[in-house]
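A.,

Following up on our hallway conversation. Structure tokens first:
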């Protein structure tokens, strides 16, 4: 796999992993252990760290993760559990800040796309002479994605996309998919990220676009479990998120341009 170099794992040794997978977990007791074990199996044999960030759960999420960490035996795939204040954005920010990987994947507690996002990055890299993109998104907006949406969900999604473009000038089709990013880049952006909730990845991708980086959007298939769910988004949510976009525009302006100190931006 082009994302991973030769495994450097030695028992008891500390190495910077090739990939950090960050998972926010809020009341995730029903799914989180299965998700962590699926990731560990899929990434077995590679230098990877899985970071779960529990944020304000009222169930046994933290206890389950703590027990899992105490009994972890997955070789080069390491596992850590952290805590943050409540909110998906707070959890993702804490996990990204704590990450050590050359690349970082921000995903969800139930792997809504399975491993399509990572597979898509691999394919994109192979087609680009082995160069791993600085930023890639598991994008429901990609024309080759297979995502069944109800009529209301489709209307609200398109409406929010129009607002993103009008208010922030964003061109990325789905900044709220899973996000794969260069580790140095995301850790450099963390201090400038403030959204505590669902707009966190939109804020992150907005700053990426300000740097002149065009995210690669890779196709995904929504799992059957997710496809069967009705939308939980309503018109009030869209209004609140629209106001959040104005907040992002007021907060950032062009400040993102000064953060990235790496190589020349590319997609």
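Then the amino acids I'd put at each of the 267 positions:
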């Amino acid at each position: 796999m082009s994302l991973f170099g030769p495994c450097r794992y030695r028992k008891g040794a500390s190495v910077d992993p090739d990939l950090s997978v960050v998972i926010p977990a809020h009341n995730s007791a029903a799914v989180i252990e299965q998700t962590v074990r699926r990731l560990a199996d899929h990434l077995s044999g590679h230098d990877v760290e899985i970071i779960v960030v529990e944020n304000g759960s009222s169930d046994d999420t933290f206890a389950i993760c703590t027990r899992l960490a105490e009994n972890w035996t997955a070789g080069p795939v390491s596992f850590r559990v952290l805590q943050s204040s409540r909110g998906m954005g707070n959890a993702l920010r804490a996990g990204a800040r704590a990450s050590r990987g050359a690349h970082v994947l921000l995903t969800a507690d139930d792997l809504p796309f399975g491993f399509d996002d990572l597979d898509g990055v691999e394919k994109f890299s192979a087609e680009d002479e082995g160069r791993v993109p600085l930023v890639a998104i598991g994008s429901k907006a990609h024309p080759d994605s297979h995502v069944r949406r109800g009529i209301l969900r489709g209307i609200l999604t398109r409406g929010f996309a129009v607002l993103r473009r009008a208010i922030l000038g964003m061109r990325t089709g789905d900044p709220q998919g899973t996000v794969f990013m260069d580790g140095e880049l995301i850790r450099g952006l963390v201090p400038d990220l403030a959204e505590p909730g669902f707009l966190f990845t939109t804020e992150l991708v907005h700053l990426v676009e300000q740097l002149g980086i065009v995210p690669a959007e890779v196709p995904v298939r929504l799992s059957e479990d997710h496809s069967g769910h009705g939308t939980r988004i309503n018109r009030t949510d869209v209004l609140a998120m629209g106001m959040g976009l104005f907040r992002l525009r007021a907060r950032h302006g062009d400040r993102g341009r000064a953060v990235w100190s790496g190589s020349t931006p590319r997609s």
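The chain has nine helices and seven strands. Curious whether your intuition agrees with the design.

B.
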